[in-house]
Amino acid sequence: xxxxxxxxxxxxxxxxxxxxxxxxxxxxxxxxxxxxxxxxxxxxxxxxxxxxxxxxxxxxxxxxxxxxxxxxxxxxxxxxxxxxxxxxxxxxxxxxxxxxxxxxxxxxxxxxxxxxxxxxxxxxxxxxxxxxxxxxxxxxxxxxxxxxxxxxxxxxxxxxxxxxxxxxxxxxxxxxxxxxxxxxxxxxxxxxxxxxxxxxxxxxxxxxxxxxxxxxxxxxxxxxxxxxxxxxxxxxxxxxxxxxxxxxxxxxxxxx
Amino acid sequence: xxxxxxxxxxxxxxxxxxxxxxxxxxxxxxxxxxxxxxxxxxxxxxxxxxxxxxxxxxxxxxxxxxxxxxxxxxxxxxxxxxxxxxxxxxxxxxxxxxxxxxxxxxxxxxxxxxxxxxxxxxxxxxxxxxxxxxxxxxxxxxxxxxxxxxxxxxxxxxxxxxxxxxxxxxxxxxxxxxxxxxxxxxxxxxxxxxxxxxxxxxxxxxxxxxxxxxxxxxxxxxxxxxxxxxxxxxxxxxxxxxxxxxxxxxxxxxxx
DNA sequence: TCCTTGTCAAGAGCACCGCTCTCGCTTTAG
DNA sequence: CTAAAGCGAGAGCGGTGCTCTTGACAAGGA
Lengths: 256, 256
Fold this sequence. Notes:
2 copies of one chain form a homodimer.
Chain A: H1 7-30, H2 37-44, H3 48-51, H4 58-90, H5 97-125, H6 127-134, H7 148-151, H8 153-168, H9 182-194, H10 200-221, H11 233-247
Helix pairs in contact in A: 1-2, 4-5, 4-6, 4-8, 5-6, 5-8, 5-10, 5-11, 10-11
The structure holds a DNA duplex.
């Protein structure tokens, strides 16, 4: 990490980070639209043109912030899921066998719920960064290829939880789930590669739930709930519980 | 409508509409962020300052466009739902009694699905206007009170479909639906006033589904599905079908 | 009929924006 | 040691939202 060979390299890396930090701070106070290179450079005590040595354009700075945001959210969600799964894994011999089996059955569901809660918590903590990545895309701006890998981290993490559940044998394929059509099977291919072993019907449902999870968070954050579900805590809890049921992550195995 | 008393009033109304139309066109091509008063005035052949006689600021123009967008979407959804409900109402004596009853049972579900499809269709047809109302909120801008009524049109329409279903006795309260907590009952109050007769458990689920529906549309429109559910038609159909089941709008009454 | 009153488009101007180019200076690499 | 590359500063271009002033014009009362 500190492998900046020359002093110039180190200075450059530091200043690049400093620019991103100040930009992120301005993002939090004024929003993405009002983020201005000139204001950032002013706050840093340098002239605006010097900033172009580090980011070729305003959009490139935004792209860097977008990638950072995806990564931060992904890390938060991964940590939350791993926390539950790891904890359940570390104490397998705590109680009698029966209780241990129950625990390992409940762990994936709890990990799923924890991941969903982490998405909401991170979004509420960094609303402008969330808006940057899950709000309307910037007009002329089209997300460069470099964003797709960080962007997929949350989805990959959620799929990982389901795969763990499938491996542990606690993923009950919902009985009323229709087998996906031919077209859908093709579209599910990427998901299948990420989480082999998860039934296609569940993968399809994961696709829906994935989008819908962010729908809930976005509605809360963007103010669509004011007047009704203003603190959306309970609505969110009810929703992600029903999601877990819908995916076959029920603690009551086989139900529904 | 054409009650513009003086010629001046009429000219003013016309020009106001013309400004909105031009702005909407620019919105469709360049996005909200790049919408510029100067460009609008240039296209209209007037000087930029003259535009401030009609809209006190850029944000006010945006507000007008937002309200128009909410109204257009609301009208499209209402039309789609009414089309199904009206059609089912007009031919009650087409077949034998048994068939007629089946039809009236299926109508609310079809109306629900039609409304959801109308949301998606309108969004795909007017992506920038959709982004304006369901994307990230403009930074410093907070939605004025005048937007909340148009904003609620879609939700009211969806609730209306459910109420019709409840009145027709084809809304099967899902058996595994938990009764809302005290807090939630309070939050559901506004929904209850809009759609009296719909069970609270269903109202709660409607709140979730409402947000989740727009989550699906947003993910598709904002490019989150590229690489997987690229034409999202089938995913969307599967999702809204599961929504209808979830709400108790099943054609298979009582199931699930 | 004239004259007041209010509305209008136009223009100049302010402060800000993204971005480009040139100019010296310093650090690096050969 | 020298040439090249990287660096910050400054000037400048065309664009933006917005304000203020000015003069033309139409409507309505005396």
